[in-house]
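Standup notes
- DV: blocked on the single-chain target, sequence here:
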Amino acid sequence: QWKSKQLSVTDLFKMLMVIFLLVLKYSIGLAKDQHTHSILPGSVKDAEEYDHLPPEEAKRRLGILLTKMDLNKDEQIDRKELTAWILRSFKMLTAEESTERFEDADENEDGKVSWEEYKNDAYGTEEEEESLSLEEESLLKNDKIMFNAADKNQDGFLTREEFVPFSHPEEHPDMLPLILNNTLEEKDLNNDGEIDFQEFIGENGQTHNKEWLLTEKEKFDEEYDKDHDGKLSGNEILSWVVPSNAEIAAEETDHLFASADDDHDDILSFDEIIDNHEIFVGSEATDYGTHLHNIHHFEDEL
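- DV (later): unblocked, structure below
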């Protein structure tokens, strides 16, 4: 559920899937400040295939996407239009990831996933489960809590619809209290229901220098501790561990405008975007090139 900035697309995907599916998932996750432009790679295969698209074909496909981004049909993309498109990309990726994970876990292909099916897919058989680390055991426990919460009809199975909040709880308000509880269980060492600075930095504080500690203290005080009482509680904790898609989209929009608005008029013409197509196919706006490979989906909408 977190982010980071421009590595190679392949490296980004590998890193983010680990973060997204293990750390952020029901644990404290990466802090929001570690993100930039890296949370939406589609798949390694799609990203690698984009590298082989001829430039003119990449531009043609990007042009098709622009007609979908351009809500008022003025052949320009303003900040609101670009931000809305990036948020749409987020939703598409969530749906794609959830479907892929559901199908991986649905071993008997009956259209629903039992806890045993998910556990075997994510953690291995009972024999393999016996060798889990303490961290993995904690993740397994939290997964079970999330599974039960997502199982709305309490039949012991998750449908495709129920699997989405299970696999992406950070995007579903009714799952946020569970993320909060899991974070407190992980970080709240004195069990006071809040997280002080020492709990915030955890064991990392013992392995970093004074400059790092001062930087983290400033983040704690200025970004997360909204009421300045020296502790994080409730929504302050959630603002730390759960990324805001709206904030991420706004930051990516700022990045793309800074890179592509050649005449500095605070609006992007189609020509400016196509002239800077390499920037856009490396961003959330095209799901790191994935949208260009799935362009038929968008052509069908035209």
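- Follow-up: The mean pLDDT is 80.
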